[in-house]
Design brief:
six-stranded parallel beta sheet, binds flavin mononucleotide, two-stranded antiparallel sheet, alpha/beta, 241 residues, 8 strands, single chain, Rossmann fold
């Protein structure tokens, strides 16, 4: 049974997605992802803002929790089908897409193809759960398999590509000591700002009254700031219409 995303987007021509088919498409490839935070509802804003970049192609991965926030339940929460029809969106993926066909030798492996395709991965929002898994190297869904298969040296893809994450969580989650441990790995060991050979950039959250009513740090940075970082990192500044 194809997942929602597969049915809409993944193989519109029935042909498996292969990164090699897009090497010379003249586009920058943004792999955008969301994990299970309320800030997932900002994904349509981010995509809409980037729809004015003519040389950009976007593929979106949602964890199963993130998918819960985009079911068409309100005007600001469109369905994946609607997101899939937004300009520049070339594919929307859920965990089920990794296994949409029984795998046989020689068949494409989606999380590897997506990794090869991406010039930049942006996880916005990054939930506390996915932050923890990322820092520990767990790979039990499509998004985390891409993150775990990231070419951190650049020796495989020929270039060291970057991952930007924008954590978003309840204030108590943010202040929990384990969060600081995970951040120390992402920023202190793998971070671009600290290590010359780092590949991760953390866009730290801000203080706000959160959706749950608590006030404090943990809110995802405004989506427009994330868009600005993407435009800068992918050098899209001259291509916005
Ligand atoms: C309505 C709702 C809002 C949530 N908001 C957040 C949030 O902002 N940040 C967060 O880290 N977890 C939040 N959670 C909890 C995560 O969705 C949960 O930990 C989930 O396992 C995350 O899975 P994922 O990291 O695979 O997406 C929320 C849960 C619900 C039901």
């Amino acid at each position: 049974m194809p997942s929602d995303a597969t049915a809409v987007n993944w193989t519109p021509s029935g042909k498996p997605f292969l990164a090699a088919d897009y090497v010379n498409d003249g586009k920058k490839h943004l792999l955008l992802a969301a994990s299970g935070s309320v800030a997932t509802i900002k994904i349509p804003n981010i995509i809409h803002a980037l729809s004015h970049c003519p040389d950009l192609s976007i593929r979106l991965i949602l964890t199963s929790s993130a998918h819960e926030f985009l079911q068409g339940q309100s005007a600001e929460q469109p369905t994946l089908a609607e997101i899939g029809r937004m300009p520049n969106v070339g594919g929307v993926y859920l965990d089920g897409d990794e296994w949409s066909e029984p795998w046989v030798r020689g068949a494409a492996i989606l999380h590897i193809e997506i990794r090869r395709w991406a010039d930049l991965l942006v996880v916005a929002p990054l939930s506390a759960n996915s932050l923890a898994k990322m820092s520990l190297g767990l790979a039990d869904n499509l998004l985390l398999s891409v993150v775990r298969a990231w070419d951190t040296t650049g020796l495989i893809d020929g270039i060291r590509k970057h991952i930007i994450v924008a954590p978003a969580m309840n204030t108590a989650m943010w202040m929990h000591p384990v969060t600081q441990k995970h951040l120390r790995i992402l920023e202190g060991e793998w971070g671009m700002e600290i290590a010359q050979d780092g590949w991760i950039e953390v866009i730290r959250p801000v203080q706000r009254t959160l959706a749950c009513g608590d006030t404090g740090n943990g809110a995802m940075r405004d989506w427009s700031e994330i868009v600005a970082v993407v435009i800068q990192r992918l050098d899209l500044g001259n291509s916005t219409a």
